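dude i think i finally got it to work??
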Amino acid sequence: MGSFGTHKTQSPGEYLDVFRYCQSMCLLAAKAAGVQAIDGIYQNVRDIVGFENDVNNIKLMGFDGKLTLHPDQISSVHKLFEPTNDELHDAVNIVRLWEDEGSLEYKGKMIDVPHYVRAKKVIARSTKKRDDMQSDRNASKNNKTTVSMSSSSQKSTSKQQSTTTNTDDTQDEIFPRVYLGKYYEDLEPGLTIRHFLTRTVTESDNVFFTCLTLNPAPIHLDHELAKENSKALSSSAEGKPLFNSMFTLALLVGMSVPEATHGTTIANLGFSEVLLPKPVYPGDTLRAETVVLDRRESKSRPTQGIVTLQHLAYNQRGEIVCKATRQALMKKKRS
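look at this
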């Protein structure tokens, strides 16, 4: 922080306001991205009491861990992030109520998906008799199944099948998954999907992508060259650098994902055609459509099929700026 002219980041006990804001934004960004949120260092390596107070605070905020500067701090992090017996007990009960009974109440309080997700995370983080607790829970399930069989074997069979499916899908998941894409059977030839995501591309997008991909072509970076090209071509682009076409292609495929292939695609097998009929310049706004051209069963994978998709990107004037035909290996629905 010294490079910003900062004399200190903390007053006794907590960050100064600007750094508390940075801390909060990092936490929220990590949660939005679905990745672990790890808090920064505590500089006074001799102040273990202060360090443990800091760890307690960031644990309550929702951080998943903390960076350490000294070996003496490591044991404190493990100790304080290890769930207490009460926390683990509550977590196991919440998961049981949610998965086995569909209950929405625990200890007089409403429980919902966030409580269930947090409980799964608590259990995953705990090292205390996790296997024993899972065995107890399985035994509880077996007892319930036995009772239900005596009253109705048909109901029990249905319950067992449901339990088996849920266990296979979710027992190792900390974050319940949500898939939005279409399966092989849904992608019938002739189907046209208009995608809801749109994007106004900026000069920063162009510069960052061009530099990230080590592309030195001045046509993407040099405004003076762009002015010369604009005059030579009698273009109305007003000297704007031409957008990197690989970015345009990547953006087009990305915009198509939510309604077409999110969570249902196994692999992208390749592109059979990529056309760029019109240029893209910074400031253009793009939208996308997908047309299903063809599909066929996979010869070696009976649970999957190959679908040919044509993706189309349009600018704000309705002109096609990119047309890409690709083949994707898609999941089939479960029988």
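Residues 143-172 have pLDDT under 50 and may be disordered.
im so relieved honestly
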